[in-house]
Amino acid sequence: MKKIQIINGPNLNMLGKREPEIYGYLTLDQINTDLAQLSESLGLELVFFQSNHEGAIADKVHENFNENIDGIIINPGALTHTSVVLRDALAMMSCPMVEIHLSNVYKREAFRHKSMLADIVTGRITGFGHYGYEMALNAIANMINES
Ligand code: DQA
Asked: Which of these, 127, 146, 141, 117, lies nearest to 46 by C-alpha position?
């Protein structure tokens, strides 16, 4: 079974409580439960990881590299806009990768318009709330089926 890593970066463990008017009322656990359900119908195995620490996320990506993971869905949180570390870690991957944001970063402060990952990921989804994760998983499933 193809294995997909779901990665959530800093502050996303606070979903549901954190600025819900921007990020919604679902917790990360609820989002992951919905994703796990969808993955069953798509025939994919999901593994979940959240960290508030840049280096811990780089370590996880290295693990994914070593195990030849089949796809990555990542909401890097604020690291999107700043992290060369994360960019370099993801740049070594050859599997499909989707960068996802709950909010539409282009409707927000200018510093959120820049992504360090935009030109190394397969595609990006921004502004569809928690549904963006499902869109990302469907997109990766299609890419895997077509390859
Ligand atoms: C976010 C957008 C980022 O700018 C922000 O720092 C986050 C969440 C989103 O999902 O909309 O932490 O990635």
From this structure: 141
